[in-house]
Automatic annotation (TrEMBL):
It is found in: Membrane. The chain crosses the membrane at residues 35-59, 66-86, 98-115, 122-141, 161-179, 191-211, 223-242, 262-283, 303-336, 357-378, 384-405, 417-436, 442-461. Keywords: Membrane, Transmembrane, Transmembrane helix, Transport. This is Amino acid permease. Its main location: membrane. Coiled coil: none annotated. The lineage of its organism: Bacteria, Bacillati, Actinomycetota, Actinomycetes, Micromonosporales. Residues 469-480 have a biased composition (Low complexity).
Length: 515
């Protein structure tokens, strides 16, 4: 049998063998998800603010009708990374996604820092989305004629009398509660809500199609081709989500076959909806008149269908809610994996004895995201969300090239086409997008990086499951029934038998006389 091991390296660049990751023992997460549930989680993470808010802003300010081209460029670049994720997902059916892939191929230090970054990025995304939903909720309450106390309507500094964004706080805690009910229950909820969201998007597309005026498409590139590329850099953040979904590999019933398909299907479905929605949006209303904050609402109002605006607002709330679910699921599974590998205390990786979910980290993430959502303005919270995900894309794209050339004979249920061009495109596009990030984002990233380096140096490096194991050693043993506990160092395959001590001379003499 051909080994798929890529173990090796030493020190901070020691690598966890692929076959060991795939065959880890111990009671782990509950495998309950099928192909369409995984796809729904992916679609839930991708489709959200991209359709309901971002498309209108980019059309009005950056690209005009060429926002369609912006989404296509971003989709192609995202697809390059998605195919890299798909190849890994078919080889390593374990929780952790980019953290686990980087650990196995590029070494422990790379895996640690990607995992550490994603802990912050995913948590911040949950908070940002909660703030966005809270804004739509406030709009609907106002439309109904109700008036809420000012203190609960936003973070300090976002308005007169604002103390906390209470609705955003409640949403974060509600998603944490839902995830703690077990992955099967949570996935059912996600599948139903994603179905409602897609139905709303299709309603918008079908109704809007009958009000399209082709004259609104001219000029198609009012800001030039550069405007379409700049728009692609903006909307790129609306076309990922499969990365968070891939962290649920360990909860799939047949991850090796289903995960690659779910990644590709979720991106494909989302891109078709994005393209159709942008065609309708810019065809219904001239790009100059599109509202940057509520594009579809203004477009439908412009053709006398303002009554549909409330339906769109409800659809936006439902659509964005699924993004919270996907990314909170992602951060808890990355944290669980890092704890199981010993890089963080095993206490965090403790699973619920019945539901088989990491309840402790789920509540920690729920509370942390609630604090961010409740007390930070959306702009400051959003600045925490970008760099870690882009770096994860770079790592996965580079790692899939390295593993393909290091172990070309390793069994793969999916092989990305166009090696190495496709992953190189994905890596370069991600690096290009990183150059658009503000200096404040780099400063926050540097602070988080330093904190992570200290934790790894004084805890993770020494307590790692691979600590003290020579390159190529056999799999580490895990404590039975403790899926989140740190793996113990491997024992020798052939332990020496116990040597029986020779009896004292007096005792030997007595035995001789008895005989």
């Amino acid at each position: 049998m051909t080994s798929t091991s890529t173990g090796g390296g030493s020190g901070m660049f020691r690598r966890k063998p692929v076959d060991e990751i795939a065959d880890e023992t111990g009671e782990g997460l509950s495998r309950s998800l099928g192909l369409w549930q995984l796809t729904a989680i992916g679609v839930g993470g991708i489709i959200g603010a991209g359709i309901f808010a971002l498309a209108g802003a980019v059309a009005n300010e950056t690209a005009g009708p060429a926002v369609l081209v912006s989404f296509l460029i971003a989709g192609l670049a995202s697809a390059a990374a998605a195919l890299s994720y798909a190849e890994f997902a078919g080889m390593i059916p374990k929780a952790g996604s980019a953290y686990t892939y980087g650990y196995a191929v590029l070494g422990e230090a790379v895996g640690w820092f990607i995992g550490w970054d994603l802990l912050l990025e995913y948590t911040a995304i949950v908070a940002v989305v909660a703030i966005g939903i809270s804004g739509y909720f406030g709009f609907l309450v106002g439309e109904l004629g109700a008036e809420l106390p000012a203190w609960m309507l936003g973070a300090p500094g976002t308005g007169d009398g604002h103390v906390v964004d209470l609705f955003a706080v409640v949403l974060c805690l509600l998603i944490a509660f839902l995830l703690n009910r077990g992955i099967k229950t949570a996935a059912r909820f996600e599948t139903v809500v994603v179905g409602l969201k897609v139905a709303v998007v299709l309603l918008v597309i079908v109704v809007g199609f009958f009000h399209v005026k082709t004259s609104n498409y001219s000029p198609f590139f009012p800001f030039g081709l550069s405007g379409a590329f700049t728009g692609a850099a903006t909307v790129f953040f609306a076309v990922f989500g499969y990365d968070a979904m891939s962290t649920a590999a360990e909860e799939s019933r047949d991850a090796r076959r289903h995960m690659p398909k779910a990644i590709i299907w979720s991106l494909a479905i989302s891109m078709v909806l994005y393209v159709l929605a942008t065609l309708v949006l810019t065809g219904m209303q001239n790009y100059r008149d599109i509202d940057s904050e509520s594009g579809f609402s203004s477009a439908f109002a412009s053709v006398g269908l303002s009554g549909l605006a409330s339906v769109i607002a409800v659809g936006a709330i439902i659509g964005i809610l699924t993004v919270m679910f996907t990314f909170m699921l992602g951060v808890t599974r990355v944290w669980f994996s890092m704890s199981r590998d010993g890089l963080l205390p095993a206490w965090f990786g403790k699973l619920h004895p019945v539901r088989r979910v990491p309840t402790r980290v789920t509540w920690i993430v729920g509370v942390a995201s609630a604090v961010i959502a409740g007390f930070l303005p959306i702009r400051e919270a959003a600045e925490l969300t970008n760099i870690g995900i882009l770096l994860a894309f770079v790592v996965v794209c580079v790692a899939v090239i390295v593993l393909r050339y290091r172990r070309p004979d390793a069994p793969r249920t999916f092989r990305l086409p166009g090696m190495p061009v496709v992953p190189v495109v994905g890596a370069l596009f991600s690096v290009w997008l990183i150059t658009f990030l503000a200096p404040e984002t780099w400063l926050r990233f540097a602070v988080w990086f330093v904190i992570g380096a200290l934790i790894y140096a004084f805890y993770g490096y020494r307590r790692s499951a691979l600590a003290g194991r020579p390159p190529g050693a056999g799999p580490a043993r895990t404590r039975p029934g403790q899926g989140g506990d740190r793996a113990r160092a491997a024992r020798p395959a052939t332990a020496p038998s116990r040597v029986r001590r020779a009896p004292p001379p007096a005792r030997a003499a007595r035995r001789s006389r008895r005989r």
